[in-house]
């Protein structure tokens, strides 16, 4: 018996086959889930359609730009035609303008950059939940992806760290509000992975190398390892877990910066 047999899960945030959401989709599919996908814009449409053919027989591929409430509402109106009820979604979406992801935080942050980072990377999680709440089954699971820059100062991550802090607290409040309906909400705090989004962070390569050398497991995590935890969180095996931030970072977060003396 596979972990996710009979589960219908919507996957967002696939830009290409390096995306964390791609790795998650691969594992959810392996575990028997029925998947639907969103794509951000027309540029990504055919790529996500191709990926959907690999990982899903339902062939549900719908547009959604989370910057727009109208687009979010339309997504779920369309999804409802195929899936009146489903079992949750993966939120793997974040964005901040490139000039916000470099240099001195205080000098470089702008009101606009702050607003964009928070609305796309945090509000969108609850915005999606709000729009599909009445379509979620009573054993649903919502999963988002965060990063340790939410509670530590990481060079160049800047305003995205604040947006991730907001996303993690969003996760807790959503878990509190929807728990009585059987809907669980959790976040995975992933170690760094080379993707389109991460390549926008100045000196990301150094960040990868630092994580690799400092992590107890002495390597960076793979998208499959992140996918495995996402599958666990979407499955009934994790039915007692909600409102948590689970680290899939090879233990990087537990290590102090003091080198051996
Ligand atoms: O090291 C990393 N890559 C880590 C990523 C470490 C820890 C956490 N994360 C998080 C990211 O912050 C994000 O929340 O994981 C999530 C997925 O990120 P990713 O897999 O690294 O990035 P990528 O493959 O670029 O996918 C992110 C996608 C976008 O890609 P593009 O290239 O189009 O920006 O997020 C989506 C989009 O598909 N996205 C949107 N989707 C709908 N509406 C929007 C939007 N407005 N903006 C971005």
TrEMBL record:
Reactions mediated catalytically: a 2,3-saturated acyl-[ACP] + NAD(+) = a (2E)-enoyl-[ACP] + NADH + H(+)
InterPro entries named in the record: Enoyl-ACP_Rdtase_NADH, NAD(P)-bd_dom_sf, SDR_fam
Pfam families documented for this protein: adh_short_C2
Enzyme category, top tier: oxidoreductase
Stretches assigned to coiled coil: none
Active site: 147, 157
Organism ancestry: Bacteria, Pseudomonadati, Pseudomonadota, Gammaproteobacteria, Enterobacterales
Species for this entry: Blochmanniella floridana
Binding site for NAD(+): 13, 19-20, 65-66, 93, 164, 193-197
GO molecular function: enoyl-[acyl-carrier-protein] reductase (NADH) activity
Top-level taxonomic group: Bacteria
CDD domains the record matches: ENR_SDR
Protein name per UniProt: Enoyl-[acyl-carrier-protein] reductase [NADH]
């Amino acid at each position: 018996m596979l972990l996710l047999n009979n589960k219908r899960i919507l996957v967002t945030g696939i830009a290409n086959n390096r995306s964390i959401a791609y790795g998650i989709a691969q594992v959810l599919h392996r575990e028997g889930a029925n998947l639907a996908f969103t794509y951000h814009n027309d540029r990504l449409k055919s790529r996500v359609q191709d990926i959907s053919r690999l990982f899903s027989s339902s062939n549900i591929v719908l547009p959604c730009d989370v910057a727009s409430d109208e687009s979010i509402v339309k997504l779920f109106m369309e999804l409802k035609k195929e899936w009146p009820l489903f079992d949750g979604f993966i939120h793997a979406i974040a964005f901040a303008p490139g000039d916000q992801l470099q240099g001195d935080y205080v000098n470089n942050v702008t009101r606009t950059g702050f607003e964009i980072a928070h609305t796309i990377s945090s509000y969108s999680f609850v915005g999606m939940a709000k729009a599909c709440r009445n379509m979620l089954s009573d054993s649903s699971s919502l999963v988002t992806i965060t990063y340790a820059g939410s509670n530590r100062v990481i060079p160049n991550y800047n305003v995205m760290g604040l947006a991730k802090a907001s996303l993690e607290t969003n996760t807790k409040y959503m878990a509190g509000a929807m728990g009585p309906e059987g809907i669980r909400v959790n976040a995975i705090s992933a170690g760094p992975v080379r993707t389109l989004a991460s390549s926008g962070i100045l000196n990301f390569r150094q960040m990868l190398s630092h994580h690799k050398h400092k992590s107890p497991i002495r390597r960076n995590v793979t998208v499959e390892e992140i996918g495995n935890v996402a599958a666990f969180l979407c499955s009934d095996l994790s039915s007692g877990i909600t409102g948590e931030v689970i680290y899939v970072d090879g233990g990087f977060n537990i290590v102090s910066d003091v080198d051996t003396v």
